[in-house]
Each structure stands twice: as structure tokens, then as C-alpha cells.
């Protein structure tokens, strides 16, 4: 019930046609100012507005307010509830088991329509209403007129008329939007700045410059819109893992329907070359599956009867019959899409800074332009107003911060997209950026650095005791425990355990087990248990987890259980040192000998052994307090048992979280496979993303300040100013897209 209420307080909307990053920032700011809104985030990269409401009963009121805000700032943008079509589909759904064929055909068509809409919303938004055929025709005619009037000489009033006509044809829509926005109080947007700058150029007699600057700006905007749409499409293509159909068994035949309509326990068929639509278990058939969409693994995996299979995998060669174990909304592919799409809601500090910077930067430059136009002519008698006005107009053109407010969010979103391609789910740009500052990495041992698959490797009975007798007592003692070590012992014993002869079972925290077997008191556990019960025992010399056993106070011997290191643990730890991680630490409940043995093999800086679950949190907090200023600590664990530590870390990384609800819930970053080397990949992508974002910021601000300085000195002209606006934005956008193609370590 609580979860449903939480879901009802969170609403998501697609803003179709949103292409202006500055306008997106204004919309976000105004929606956040609504009393009924807890928090609102507009993800420009996906045109998604995410709103957290204070009260559920205010949904309709807030929706109307949002539509009015969007309409006022960007009239052509259409606001659609993100899940509206899916909701309608679910409401009209009456169970597929008795639907008619026509109904299925209609539903499938409906789903296709939803998919098309989804793709359209994320990849084909046209900024400033786009350059449609009519708009292009007007620009072409205006350009021809401009060329004619520039080449041939006409009478003054004819020349002025032709320049004005060409200006109106080329930039009339911008002028209209600027005038409309002035009446709404939106005086610092790019339309207003370009309109004032070019009208000012007309006022001082610079007719050709006014028209050419508007033409240059219009063409630059068209390229910028295309670049933004292309970048959105690249990100959407990267995440195009959503299956479109499910082939469900109905009677003796299979019908194609939407994955959302399939119920638990239904049987589906997946042909070669198709995406697996839902999570399930293979009932019939065997095949190789490509898992790279979800895990980033290049090698295909073999599946056969009884194996689990996840949505988003691609069936390569055999026909598979699968029993569905999770609804589509709970499936692996659905979780991944939801996480990646909503990652923009958690903005990186750099993004937040740029948004705040852009809010103040434009007004400051505009007022500087006003001062530049007015003050010198007042203070210096020789200064001509027209000359200083021209310099001021350059300031107006340069003042638009589009290059930053578009490229920085796109950069972080591209980084998150690249990470997901590599099987790494990052829940927000803030976590991706935080990885740059990590100096200490703390690892859990079992299932993180080691396989987590325990095997009995040594059985050492005391004098006069047989191996069989020793194993029997240990197996009976451990039979009630579900710990992997206990399972490995009972598996090694291999015989049926008669639980009727077991009594008084008790787990002794941090030591082992006390139990009565056939009326005899058995203690099985670590050396602490033996010392605690004053039992004289022979200490083991082998490396591994040791279980000592005593019966009625007499030492029977010990068995050794080993857990293998993962194949790439050694390589991963070495690579982490190479990319600048200062401290690597391991926490384990194993004994000191095992812990330190693994520590030496992996060249870890610190190893904390023999820890109780609560000790891990204490040790972690101690290491957290030892961090240098502005540095961060990350924890890597299995995401289930380590939730308390994961939530305390600056960056919590869950290992092997494919399909695991607990891992996805507790961690900030989820590694979809069990490879420690994915931590290296995540940090590498983080560092590259940061590098590109900083390049964009330095390049954009550098060019703008140089042109502003040159403009103030009278060296730069308005054409250079337009390049400092749209040209720089284009370069920054294309630079951000390099992140998508980056091959991480």
C-alpha cells in the first residue's frame, strides 16, 4: 500500500517538441516554485519532467499548472503523461485468455503506437517548432533577396525595404516569439537577445550585418536542433532493449501480444533472432543467448531446460519455450530502462552549478551590454553612441548560455548511457561524478572478490576418529543453517539427514553452532568457539574457512572450506591502483588467516577479518572519517546482505545485481555481472565523462569571454558573436556525444 501511495506522489511527463535547453531550465524552475510540488526535475536529454508531489489529491491541479507554465514558455511544446497510454491499455485490459483475435490485433497495434510515440518523444523533438518546409522556403527566399540586395546597388529606401523583407522572411518567427515573450516577462531568452541585437544593428545602419547575423543564427540553430535530436536518438538507440512483442500460448497456437499483457505462469515462445520479452524459466529447447544488452558481456551464454532467462536477452539460434516468472513491469529490462531514463533526475553537482550559473550569467551580460552602450557616450564627449551600441549588441548575442545548458546534461546522460551499455546501471549523474572523487574502495569478500561457491577442500580428523564420523557430526550440526558454508558441508556429506535426532539447535553469534545430536552435545564453529568452551584443539594450518568440531567436550577434528577468488579480482585491484584509487580495503567475517591470505594475493591495503555484521558498519564509518577533504568512499558488496553499508557509502556499488530487487534498491550503482573489473570500467567512464564535460565548460566559457572582451574593445563583429553562441553550442554537443562511443577499460 505504501509503495502505491509513493508511486501516486511521483508523476512523469514527456514534453514533446522541447528543444530549448534554456527554456527547459525555466520550466523546471517555475514548476519547482509551485507550493504543491516537493521537487521537480526536467531531464533535457529525454524531455522528461519528473514531479514529486506533496499531496496525492493535488495531481490534476498541478498538471494543469504545469501545462500553463509550459505553454507560456514554449507554446508549441505538448505535455503528455509518460505512462498515459500504458495506463489506458491496462484499464481496458480484461484478460488475454478470452480476448478475440481482433482485440489482440488492436492491442498489438496500440502497443506499436505507444512504442512509436515513446521513440518520437525521445528522439524527434523539434526545437523552436523546427524548420518545416514553409519555414525553409521563407529562409531560402529571404536569403536570395539578401544576396541580390548585397550585390546590386539600389536606391536607399528600396535597399532598406529589401533588407527588411529579407530579415522578416529569415527571422520573422524569432521576432514574433521575442515580442510575445516580452509581454510575458521572459526578457532574457535567446529569441529576445537576437531580436534586440539585430534591430539594434538596423538602428545604426548596419543593414547587411543585421540580416546576415540573423541568417547565420537561424542556420546555426537548425544545425543545433539536429545535433540535439541526433544525440537524443543515439542515447535512445543505445537503450533500445525494450521487446515489442510476446508470443503467448493460447490453446494449441501462439499469438503475438504486448509484453505488458502477459501474466505470471503464462507460456511464451521465443524464435531465433528475437528479444526475450519477459523474465522466466526455460521449459523446452536450448540455445545460445546474447546478453550484451543487459550485462555488456560480449560472449554468448548457453541456456537449456530449467535455466533462468531475462528479458532483453537475444535468442541466437534455438527455439525456446519459457514460463513467465515476472510481469513486464518487474522484469530486468523494465528496471534497467526505468533506471537509465530517470537517472537524469539526480543531477551532478556540475550540472546544478551550470543551471545556477546560466540563470545569473545572461542578466549580468545583458546589463553589461546596456552599460557599455550608455556609459562611454555619457562620460566621454568624443564617444559615438552608434559605435558603442554596436559593441553592446555583440554582448547581447554572446550572452546566451545554450552551449553549457545543453552540452553538460547531455554529457552526463551519455556517460550513464555508455555505462549501461557496459552492464553498469548508474542511478544519477551525481553518482557518476562522485566516482571521480573516490579515494577509498571498500570490498565485501564473499561473492564480491571471491566466487561465493564454497567447497570442502580438507577433512582432518583427530586421532582415533574417522573422516566419515567427523563429517557426519558437522553435517548434522550445520543442517539447519542456510549459510553457503553449511550448504557446502551437507552437500559434501551427501546422505539424508534425519532431523528427528537433532535437538536444542542454537546459533552462537560470531562463533558457530551448539546442538544435540543423538543425545550428544556438539559444538561446530571457529577457534573462538573452542577457546570459549575451553576445548583443547589442534589449530589448522590450511588456508580457508575452518570449522572445528567437538562432541561432549572432546575435540574431533576440523574441516576446511575454501572459496575461490574470481578470475578478474587480481587484475581489477591492480587496475584500480593504476587509475588512482589510494586505498583498497576488504571486510570479511572469515578468520584472520583466510582474510590476510586473500589480502596478500590481491595486494590490498587493509583487511578486516572475523567481523560480525554490525562490525562492518563500524569499520566502514571509521574509514569514512579518515578521508581527506572533498574525497569520497565507495563500498562494493552483493547488494543483499550489505545493504546497511551500501546505504552509508558516498557511492554504494552492488555486485551481480542482474534481476535482484534488493541490489537495485540499496545501491547507487549496480554492476549487472559478478566481475570486479566492472568497478574499474565505471570509474573510467566517470573520469572520461568528467573530462569531456570540463572541456565543454572551459571551451564554451573561454570562447564567450574572449569574444566579449574583443567586442568591448571593438575588435570582434557580430558574426563572431553568433559563432560564440550557436557555433560553440554545436561543437560542445558533438563533443558530448564522444562519450557514447568511448571504449572503457
Task: Report on the architecture of this protein.
Helices cover 51% and strands 19% of the residues. The protein is an alpha+beta fold and 745 residues long. A hairpin with a 2-residue loop joins strand 5 and strand 6 (253-257). Helix 8 (190-203) runs antiparallel to helix 9, helix 12 (349-379) runs antiparallel to helix 13 (385-398) and helix 13 (385-398) packs antiparallel against helix 24. Residues 1-5 and 84-130 have low confidence and may be disordered.
Distance between the termini: 44 Å
Radius of gyration: 33 Å
Largest sheet: 7 strands, mixed
Structural class: alpha+beta
Shape: elongated
Strands ordered across the widest β-sheet: 14-26-25-24-15-22-23
Low-pLDDT runs: 1-5, 84-130
Share of residues in helices? 40-55%
**Average pLDDT figure:** 83
Estimated share of beta-strand residues:
15-25%
| DSSP E strands, number | 26
Continuous helix count: 26
Which properties best describe this structure?
disordered N terminus, 6-stranded antiparallel β-sheet, 745 residues, single chain, 7-stranded mixed β-sheet, alpha+beta, 26 helices
